[in-house]
């Protein structure tokens, strides 16, 4: 069995196990997730210096805009996925003024199953991997009021 197939089967078994647990003992899923500490990535290079920081209002406006745009992107992605479920199953053709066709992609991705096979066949150990860039997260938080001396 190829590593990719094994990973897919393990993932499927985990999903089925979670589904069964969600019906039999839903609290076990919450307890398991509650114990996990959130992981924070280190700050990247090229950040503002202390004397370069924009005003708090500018940062707040940027954070609000980022959150709004991210929410719109998530909604758009959900809409695209729902429409794609239908369109992916259609044969190429014209449907009421809409042409459905497929073109080959110019993008390529490494064939990890084949690379892993070559590494194993030649005794090269594990396939070298590198982490992806950390994701930027923005969330609104309560700011405690600062008491004013009278």
Give an overview of the whole structure.
The chain has 150 residues and is mainly alpha-helical. It contains 4 helices and 2 strands, in the order αααββα. The chain has a two-stranded antiparallel sheet with strand order 1-2. Helix 1 (3-24) crosses helix 2 (26-34). The longest helix is centred in the middle third of the chain and has 32 residues, at 56-87. It starts with a helix and ends in a 29-residue tail after the last helix. The model has no long low-confidence stretch (mean pLDDT 85).
Given the C-alpha coordinates, what overall shape results?
extended
Succession of helices and strands = HHHEEH
Rg over alpha carbons: 24 Å
Residue fraction in strands: under 5%
What structural class is derived from the secondary structure elements? Answer: mainly alpha
Instruction: Specify the oligomeric state.
Output: single chain
Largest sheet: 2 strands, antiparallel
Distance between the termini: 75 Å
Give the number of DSSP strands. Answer: 2
Alpha plus pi helix count: 4
Helix content: 40-55%
Spatial order of the strands in the main sheet?
1-2
Residue runs with pLDDT of under 50 for 5 or more positions: none
What does the average pLDDT come to? Answer: 85
